[in-house]
Amino acid sequence: MLNNIKGIMNRNVQIISPWVSIATAVEIMKQSRASGLPVVEEGSLKGILTSRDVREAHPNRLVADAMTHNPVVVTPQISLWQAKELLEEHQIERLIVIEDGRLVGIITATQIYAELGKHIDPLTGLPRAEYLYQKAIELLLQNNQEIIIIFIDLNDFGNIDKNFGHVVGDQVLRQVGDELQKCLPDNCFLCRYAGDEFALVLSAPQKDAIDLAYLLVSRIAQLEFEQDFSISASAGVAGGRRFNQRFEREENSTVSDLINMASLASTRAKREKCQVIVAEGLQLIEVS
Asked: Which CATH topology does 22-116 take?
């Protein structure tokens, strides 16, 4: 399920006219306990007045003279992760939410980070599975890019919990997550999918993705632990260039299909004790 800002944004938004004084704006901010006010005239958004704008302006100046013009605006459908990226890119504390040309809400960095915390795996610090879905869809929508899913499954992980305990098992998962992050190329997005499974999405030629899968599996096998045991992993790869026409609004099912295919490929790789299996259509092919 994709997570957008619609359910957590503030809908009851205090607005302000561009033609009132900064002193008046300060009082409105205090009364409404808002650190940023959208500036609206005749139903049209003109800017935003922030606490920083107020600090740098004389109390007798007009809001129109002190406000920030061309504020960053989003729609209610934007994902939490996209909202976070916009905040960090523009180094701002809030986003104004517009729908059909109307101001419908505002959302702050505090709200976004608090909600994102619910979608972060506390053990590894990696995003959960819904992040993978969202990033995969974003890549699909960028110039109709083809995407690759790599699904990584640790082999015989249950034996670690049985022989060394869950504390050591948790340590293994943290180290694997850290190691995977070190190996990722740009524009590649990783999550802890579930249990001892990790998954990532990228836009790249299939050969490059296969090479990356082998690299990741190899780096996992090189990890060292105080208890003097070794681990291994199997990977499934699905995606690549497809020549069938993609119909609009099928992104969700496309991503779900690719993740399922990559998961099945990793399961077969695990069962057959090979490193990487590639899903080609409905076929699963070992590569070397």
From this structure: CBS-domain (3.10.580)
Query: Rounded to 10 degrees, what is the CA torsion of 241, 246, 249, 253?
Result: -60
239 token code pair = 């995606």
Q: What is the pLDDT along the chain (288 residues), one digit of tens a residue?
A: 458 899 999 999 999 999 999 999 999 999 999 989 999 999 899 999 999 999 989 999 999 999 999 999 999 999 999 999 999 999 999 999 999 989 999 999 999 999 999 899 999 999 999 999 989 988 888 766 789 999 999 999 999 989 999 999 999 999 999 999 999 998 899 999 999 999 999 999 889 999 999 999 999 999 999 888 999 999 999 986 554 545 445 778 888 999 999 999 999 999 999 999 998 764 556 665
**CATH number at 123-286:** 3.30.70.270
**DSSP letters of 224-268?**
--TT-----EEEEEEE----SPPPTT-HHHHHHHHHHHHHHHHHH
DSSP state of 79: B
Pinpoint the alpha helices (H) of 117-250. Answer: 129-141, 157-164, 166-183, 206-221
Look at phi and psi of residue 249 and say left if phi exceeds 0, alpha if psi is from -120 to 50, else beta. left
Contact criterion met (CB below 8 Å) for 286 and 272: yes
Domain ranges of the chain: 22-116, 123-286
Instruction: Judge contact between 123 and 137, C-beta under 8 A.
Output: no
Q: What are phi and psi of 39, to 5 degrees?
A: -100, 120
